[in-house]
Structures are given as C-alpha cells and as structure tokens.
Amino acid sequence: MVVDKIKFGTDGWRAIIAQDFTVYNVARVSKGLSEWLLQRGSNPTVVLGHDCRFGGELFCEAVAKVLCSNGIKVLMAKGFISTPMISMGVLKLGAQQGVVITASHNPPSYNGYKLKGAHGGPSSPKDIAAVEALIPDSVEIPKEGLAHWEAKGLIEYINLEDMYVSYLQEKFDFEALKNSPFKLAYDAMYGAGQNVMRRLLPNAVLVHCENNPGFNGQAPEPLDKNLQELAKVVATTPEVKIGLATDGDADRIGLYDEDGHFVDAHHIILLLIHYLYKYKGMSGKVAIAFSTTDRVKRMCEAYGLPIEITPVGFKYISEIMVHEDVLVGGEESGGIAVKGHIPERDGIYDGIMLYEFMTKSGKTLKQLCEEVYEVVGRFVYERNDMHIENEKKEHIISTAAKNGYTHFGKYNFNRIETIDGIKYHLDNGGWILLRASGTEPLLRIYAEGNSKEEALDILEDVKKTIL
Predict the structure, then answer these.
(1) C-alpha distances in angstroms, 448 versus 378, 386, 442, 466?
(2) Among 361, 392, 398, 449, which is disulfide-ready with 454 (CB 3.0 to 4.6 Å)?
(3) How many CB atoms lie within 10 A of CB 312?
C-alpha cells in the first residue's frame, strides 16, 4: 500500500476531511509529534483543542489517545477554542507544545493540524520539519477511551476560554469600551471567536455568532467578498462605526469603517504601527511577510523603525518575535501580532486594540486611515485567488521564475523580488505578486495600485498575460 507523505504548509497540515484528513492520518502525525517530544525531554505536556470546524472533537480524541499512550500528558480544552487561546495556554501553563485542530480560513471541507511552540506562538520551521520527518507510515490507535487516560492522570481538562477572557480584561479598559461613542459590530464567521466576544463586549451587534460546523457553506476567511452581511450591518446601522470580523479559528482579522468600506490587513498593520508608535510611544522592529504592502517600509522610514521582510507564513514572523523586540508583525492575509501580547496572530486582540484606538482618540476608523495616508500616501490593494490545475499553476510560476514575463498589459515593471513567489515593482509605484498557495490548489495574484480601479485593472492585465 502506498502511503501519502504528510506535509505541513505555511501554517500547519491541512487536507480534505475523510479524503486525506482522517483519524488515522491525524494519529500518524500525533505519533511523529510524540517521538519528537520524547527525544527532547522527559514528561512533556501538550495543550490540545479544536475550533468550530466539523469533526474537531473526533480528531482531538485521536490526538489525545496517541499522545497519552506514549506517556505524554494532555491538557485538553472542553468545547471549541480559538488558536490564540491554545498558544496562550501553552505559555501560561508551561507546556512543551500546543496542538490545535483547525483549518483556519480554508473551505468547510478541510480540517487541519497546527503546532504551537512553548513560546506561545507557531512552532518554528525547524521544529515543524523535525516533527514531519518522524511521521510514520503506520500507527496503532489505542482502543482505550479518554476516560481511561484521565483516570491514569494523563488527561486533564482545562478552561482556556476563561483564561483568555481574564487576560484580555487585564489588557484593555472594557469599561471605556462599553461606553464608547462608537458601537462595534462583530462577525465571527461561525468561528471560534463568538463566545469570547459575547462575553467581552455584550453591547456589540453580533453577526454569524452561531455554531455552524459547515460555516454555512462558505470559507471562513475575512475577505470583503465573504463579509457582505457585516458590511451591510455597518453601513445601515447609524450607531455602528466599526465592523470587526475574525476567521474560523479567530487568529485573522478583517475590518469595516463607518461607511461599510473594507479595511484590509495592509491598512490594519499600518494603523497598529501608527497607534503604538505615535500615540503610545512604543518602538521596536516591524516584521512583515513578503506579500504585504511596501507602504509599511515607508512608515518605518518615517518613524525610524527597523523592518524585516520574511517569506509568507506567520511562523517566520513569530520566530523573529521570540528573539527580538518586535512592535508589530503581520501578513497580508490578516494575521497580525503586536508587542505586549503573545508572539501569535490574534484577530480579537488586534480588533479590540483598534477599537480602543478609536475610543481613546475620539476618531473614526476612516479618520485614522487618513492619518496613515498623511504618512504613506493613498493606496488600494486587491487579490485574486485563481483555482487552476496544478500543472497550469506550476507552468505560470516556472515562467515567472525564468523572467518569462516582460510586462503585464499596459503595466511595466522596473525590478523583481523573489523572497517568496515573484514580486514585480511597477513603474506607477504599485506592485504585482504571483504566488502558489502552500495549502490549497490555487494561484494567488496580488496587486497594489493608486486607486481601486487601477488595482482591479492590474489584476485583469495580469490574468490576460499569464493565462
């Protein structure tokens, strides 16, 4: 029998439920993790949980059985949790590892397996590769149930939600937020942030805050096209001045201003840098993924902040945050971490921080974006995810890597960067990035222009050129 090799992508291993993401394959990964942990020391402890996605409890059970049968203690969350809750739990409880069963923002047919390090963020690329290398072709799943391992003292149930809520209540002035002149609307996208936000901001207008393991048939990714109901709520409810959305496991963020206009992750990263540096007097390095706007470089130059560009994948940013003083670390996809919190993406934490920025400054999100534009200039970003056959996708990336594209329609470029994918810097000041997804069968085309019309036009010219 040919056994498929399990590969971790930019953010964990993800696969289609019942096709490759099976109880057996989850057990194989858990056996590899067990071997790795036992090589590194005796009596390791793992914090384990799952988000709202279909099959989470079942897959978590398989992880726990394999870990416990190898003598590894499991601190297990009851009910669904967010990815940041697991990361925080690992750090606060002094565990050696965290495992969260989630496919994050992927379509409902997927589930996934994320590894979290003892530092309270994504495991390092080196550690992930080491675990991957130890995943066996076959595994024996223990027949004993969870009650057996609990009786032996190898499973202990913990309440990560309470821990996380208490932590946030210490970090932010929720009394001020509850009396904010700006009402907040929150879209959980049927994901793991719903209970926390219900508890933290009881006055918020809630959208899609029900438990729906199939996410109503839509990928829980906080993009404008997936959040039109939230956009409408913000645009049509006079007292609502900000719309916040988080993805399936609540580590990514999307925002809407008071007019119901989408505020993408590039702007959110800039807003957070601006708030922490200009208003709170904080400093530190800024670490951003390759697919993030160059306007961040412009702001860092203006504020005298060092900047580092990483390949796409928050694990690279997290690794920098563990070893250096980082003010903001973020990705185009909405995964952003800030100084004073764990080295982990956290859509709820980021969203509350920006809500605090509005409340304390007395300015709307639109007005705060204008402050950012005064520093970096206006820009508009768009992205197109093209679902195409792997052969075609590889051909396009191969052609780009060999400098096979000299221009994209009317748009000429003056230099190319290849940190992760191929990035073309355009003569008009914008840019194009071609990059194959590490977790899904698609090609991502990123474009930045000076207006929405220009950014969309760039995307069209790119598609006509490469297809």
Answers:
(1) 11, 17, 20, 18
(2) 449
(3) 23
Determine the CATH number of domain 180-376.
3.40.120.10
How many CA within 13 A on the CB side of residue 14?
Answer: 20
pLDDT by residue, tens only, the chain of 467 residues: 557 899 998 789 999 999 999 999 999 999 999 999 999 989 999 999 999 999 999 999 999 999 999 999 999 998 999 999 999 999 999 999 999 999 999 999 999 999 999 999 999 999 999 999 999 999 999 999 999 999 999 999 999 999 999 999 999 999 999 999 999 999 999 999 999 999 999 999 999 999 999 999 999 999 999 999 999 999 999 999 999 999 999 999 999 999 999 999 999 999 999 999 999 999 999 999 999 999 999 999 999 999 999 999 899 999 999 999 999 999 999 999 999 999 999 999 999 999 999 999 999 999 999 999 999 999 999 999 999 888 889 899 999 999 999 999 999 999 999 999 999 999 999 999 999 876 567 899 999 999 999 999 999 999 999 98
Q: What is the CATH number assigned to the segment(s) 13-162?
A: 3.40.120.10
The CATH T-level fold of domain 380-466 is: TATA-Binding Protein (3.30.310)
281: left (phi > 0), else alpha (psi -120 to 50), else beta?
left
What gap in Å lies between CA 197 and CA 206, rounded to an integer? 9
Answer whether 13-162 and 380-466 agree in fold. Answer: no
Domain ranges of the chain: 13-162, 180-376, 380-466
What are 23's two structure tokens? Answer: 């109880």
Model pTM above 0.85: yes
Residue 199 to residues 49, 161, 166: CA-CA distances in angstroms? 20, 10, 10
